[in-house]
Amino acid sequence: MMKKTIVAALSILACGTGWAADGTPATADAQLIKQGEYLSRAGDCIACHTAKDGKPFAGGLGIESPLGTIYSTNITPDKDTGIGNYTLEDFDRAVRHGVAKDGHSLYPAMPYTAYAKVTPDDVKALYAYFMHGVEPVKQANKDTDITWPLSMRWPLGVWRWMFAPDVATAPVTATPANDADKQALLRGQYLVEGLGHCSTCHTPRGFALQEKALTDADGSAFLSGGVVEGWLAKNLRGDMADGLGSWSKEDIAAFLKSGRNGHSAAFGGMAQVVQDSTQHLTDADVNAIAVYLKSLPPVNKNATQPLAYNDTVAQALRSGKDTSDGAMTFLNNCAACHRSTGKGYAETFPQLALSSTVNSADPASLIHIVLKGAQMPGTSAAPTAYAMPGFDWRLTDKEVADVVTFVRSSWGNQGAAVSASDVAKVRKEVGAAKAPAR
């Protein structure tokens, strides 16, 4: 689900219903266009195909990859620089099969491995929207910054042959209780594995940048968490400490609609996903996503007990008995919002106690937030976009390590310690300010 990343949609997308004899797009049904607009929200096309301060869907957004910078393409119906000359068949081949109009294979940054699950009817609706519901913008596409020989395209065909799935839907592994549950489960699976392409961020990748699992049937790596641009896209499986095991279906739905709930708040790329995509989904679709995610078993099937809150640290902070470096850094910089209890303020300043982000085996996101801050999305359900400032200019690597370690070991949290070298690595990766001299 994180856009502006290597996992972003970088291919030429096109949508519509047919072509007239003179080569112009045929008139599309208004309802079909409206359906396509909704589906484009579900797919979050705008996040990758719109540059900062740019025209919608005109492309030009630079996206970093291990090979170099790739720029998203113009997917407006402009005939010269966009997808105005694409047929429905061209679009389907690109989106679901990873092959462009001229026959070259798309970079695997394009999530066609997920879009392979999109139904032909939904492809048709998307095509109608992009051809008839989007303003054409004349803006030439930018070449990638990938240098030769890595810029050669033919190896992408091999990658596609090895790792891309057939255009089919994997079976649902959970056993629903009744027909209504089954419908919600299947719809949720379709949105998560297909248009939502959640696994492109939330699934770890292998040596060839392939997702280690495309469905739950492929193994527990599916949606178990992945690192994207210095953020950890969280584990979406049923693990208690770092997954969604302690979240209810209602918690998940609230998070997707508002960007926050009693457990956490959206940050990094996920904030934009909520802003541009999930808040616009129907309640039925959001609930279906929640039903499906709650059907996924944990990675660690032996850790079935939730973490338990412990107020020992809170009492020590209030009484002045904890004077460790980490505790003092927390009191001086964090406690005003997150409180000595670690519980924060509901849906305003996220709780740190028992947080899945705090307890993750990989502390990258927590370090990233401390260094550069983060901002919640402003949504219809929760309009105020609360923000946390970054402390990269104020705290040394050791001070960040001390406070992160303190947080990860307080109030019942069970995260491992963090070192100054861990912080220095993240500081460099995310482009944070140089650590202050002491």
TrEMBL record:
Heme c 2 binds at C198, C201, H202. It is found in: Cell membrane. GO terms for molecular function: electron transfer activity; gluconate 2-dehydrogenase (acceptor) activity; heme binding; iron ion binding. Heme c 3 binds at C334, C337, H338. Its EC number is 1.1.99.3. Its main location: membrane. SUPFAM superfamilies: Cytochrome c. Binds 3 heme c groups covalently per subunit. One of its GO terms (cellular component) is plasma membrane. Its cofactor is heme c. InterPro entries: Cyt_c-like_dom, Cyt_c-like_dom_sf, Cyt_C_IC, Cytochrome_c-type_DH, Membr-bd_ADH_cyt_c. It is an enzyme of class 1 (oxidoreductase). Heme c 1 binds at C45, C48, H49. The keyword Phosphoprotein does not apply. Residues 31-134, 183-297, 321-411 form the Cytochrome c domain. Residues 1-20 form the signal peptide. Coiled coil: none annotated. Keywords: Cell membrane, Electron transport, Heme, Iron, Membrane, Metal-binding, Oxidoreductase, Repeat, Signal, Transport. This is Gluconate 2-dehydrogenase cytochrome c subunit. It comes from Achromobacter ruhlandii. The lineage of its organism: Bacteria, Pseudomonadati, Pseudomonadota, Betaproteobacteria, Burkholderiales.
